[in-house]
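Lab notebook: predicted structure, single chain.

Context: the supervisor wants predicted structures on file for every construct in the current expression panel, including those that have not yet been purified. This is the next one on the list. No modifications to the sequence; it matches the entry in the shared construct table.
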Amino acid sequence: FWPVQKSTGIYSIFEIFSRGVHRCPVVEEGQVVGVCSQSSLVSYLAARIAKEPLLDVALSELNIITKQVE
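Prediction complete. Output recorded below exactly as produced.
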C-alpha cells in the first residue's frame, strides 16, 4: 500500500512502480480521492511523446531491456 499525494512528482511515482507496485491510492487530508495506475501514467507519457518526438528514444538508448533471448 503506497499512498501518494496529488502533489507527488512523476519521478517519485516511477520509483514506487519500479518496486512492483501497479497502482497507488491518491490521498488528500487523509481521504482517498483517486488512484494513480501504471497504465494511466503510460497513457499520459504516450500522448506526451506523440507531441514531443524528442522524447521518443530507442530502447537500446534507455538500457531497460532486462534479458536477451537467444
